[in-house]
Design brief:
With about 290 residues, the protein is an alpha+beta fold. It has 9 helices and 16 strands. The longest helix is centred in the N-terminal third of the chain and has 16 residues. The relative contact order is 0.15. The protein binds 4'-deoxy-4'-aminopyridoxal-5'-phosphate.
Length: about 290
């Protein structure tokens, strides 16, 4: 693991932040998770644009702006040196008083971690994962907009924990209307009647970069692909379902709450989309 911190790149176990950083005390900050594929940082500019939008949404200045962060990501990726890896770019509110007041934090802190990451074992990716519907709902936009990729991931962590404690691999997370938002840290797609469907971000999903890529690739292959509000009904009625995320990759869903989704195995549309993604991804990044 390599970490960019305070202007230098160090080994993972040498990186230290003060305990009064509001990222730690209050989860006050934002982040991006980005894949390195074939020695390129996948869709780096899209990730930086999303980070910039989040920074504006929480009134957090990006030190040096997007251009500086771009260089930090490329420099840390170079230091790690592997062709396939995962980048975690973090901007916290920085050091401040023990109180919550963000105005006590004069300087945001940037961290960039590059390491290997594998969220699911390969055999599970072949078989398909089991989802369990979480009892916790995703917070609505008037509480904490899920489109902000913030350091407040307690909701996501507890949804994941609940799914794991019930013997499932991953959580299906609903919004306060009982409709599907996404998984704990990945977007959800369903295939119904030959169409590829995913909930709109306003239903409680992150505007996923992998999700956007899959929508583009599907349309390019002539598969109708739409954002649509979905319920658990749609998953039980679906022919196929899968998750997408930078960390997770493209992950087929085998079951929901103990019942098979579609045939209970990865389907033909998933196979097509996964192949198209594997072909396209190595060409969609910024080399370092
Ligand atoms: N939803 C959430 C809550 C996430 O944290 C993530 C990324 N980790 C995603 C969806 C997937 O987004 P992306 O494809 O941009 O990684």
């Amino acid at each position: 693991m390599k970490v960019w911190i305070d202007g230098a790149i160090v080994e993972g176990d040498e990186a230290r932040i003060p305990v009064t950083d509001h990222g730690l005390l209050y989860g006050d900050g934002i982040f991006e998770g980005i894949r390195i594929v074939a020695r390129r940082v996948f869709r780096l500019d899209a990730h930086l644009a999303r980070l910039r939008a989040a920074s504006r949404a929480i009134a957090l200045e990006l030190p040096g702006g997007v251009a500086a962060l771009r260089e930090i990501v490329l420099e840390t990726a170079r230091a790690f040196g592997e062709d396939e890896a995962y980048v975690r770019l973090i901007v916290t509110r920085g050091v401040g008083s023990l109180g919550v007041d963000p105005t006590s934090c004069p300087t945001p802190r940037v961290l960039c971690i590059v390491d290997r990451l594998r969220l699911y074992p390969p055999e599970l990716l072949e078989r398909g994962i089991a989802l369990a519907t979480a009892s916790l709902r995703r917070p609505p936009a008037d509480v904490l907009d899920p489109r902000v990729k913030s350091l407040n991931y307690l909701n996501n962590a507890l949804c994941k924990l609940e799914a794991r404690q019930r013997g499932a691999d991953e959580a299906l997370v609903l919004n306060q209307a009982g409709m599907i938002a996404e998984a704990s840290v990945a977007n959800l797609f369903a295939v119904r009647g030959g169409e590829l469907l995913t909930p709109p971000a306003t239903d409680g999903a992150l505007e996923g970069i992998t999700r956007a890529t899959v929508l583009e690739l599907a349309r390019g292959m002539g598969i109708p692909a739409h954002e649509r509000t979905l319920g658990r009904f749609d998953l039980f009625a679906a022919q196929e379902a899968f998750l997408t995320g930078s960390g997770a990759g493209l992950v087929p869903v085998a079951s929901l709450d103990g019942r098979p989704v579609g045939s209970g195995a990865p389907g033909p549309v998933f196979a097509k989309v996964r192949a198209a993604f594997a072909d396209a991804a190595p060409h969609q990044g910024t080399p370092f």
